[in-house]
Design goal:
The chain is an all-alpha fold. It has a domain of 77 residues: Cytochrome c-like domain (Cytochrome Bc1 Complex, Chain D, domain 2, Orthogonal Bundle). Helices cover 57% and strands 0% of the residues. The chain has 6 helices and no strands. The mean pLDDT is 85. Heme C binds next to helix 3, helix 4 and helix 5. Heme C (HEC) binds next to helix 3, helix 4 and helix 5.
Length: 113
């Protein structure tokens, strides 16, 4: 019994540690944000602003838009699907990530040889 309790305590501590580590881990925020690069451009700098650039955008604005897409409050062609399944904490990490990126033009694609 003692052994089971000890194992449980160690397991629980492990989970708490993992959670704390991911929430504070900048690579976790980037890995969440990277799923948006396909459409919104690398680091959120979109090509010709279609779809809109996220880089350097206001954090609170980004968070609110994502929550509204997720909750079906803002009509969308595709974003309501991409915002689904994220917690408010994850959306805040994504919004914080893009808000911290310096806005700019998308880098030119490498030349095809
Ligand atoms: C498949 C392409 C695609 C992906 C992937 C994608 N988006 Fe979008 N995003 C769009 C399009 C298109 C719009 C315009 C709204 C619409 O029609 O859905 C948009 C609009 C937005 C807007 C509103 C911008 C504004 O100026 O109001 C935000 C914020 C946004 N996306 C954030 C994200 C985030 C964060 C992710 C990653 C979790 C993401 N998007 C992934 C295509 C995409």
């Amino acid at each position: 019994m003692l052994r089971t309790t000890t194992l449980f305590a160690v397991g629980l501590a492990g989970c708490l540690w993992t959670h704390a580590a991911t929430a504070a881990d900048p690579t976790y925020a980037r890995s969440l944000a990277a799923t948006c690069f396909t459409c919104h451009g690398t680091e959120g700098r979109s090509v010709d602003s279609v779809p809109p650039s996220l880089a350097g955008q206001n954090r609170d604005y980004l968070l609110k838009q994502m929550q509204e897409f997720r909750d079906g409050k803002r009509p969308a062609t595709i974003m309501h699907q991409h915002a689904k399944g994220y917690t408010d904490e994850q959306l805040a990490l994504i919004a914080g990530y893009f808000a911290a990126v310096t806005p700019g033009r998308a880098a030119a694609a490498p030349a095809v040889r």
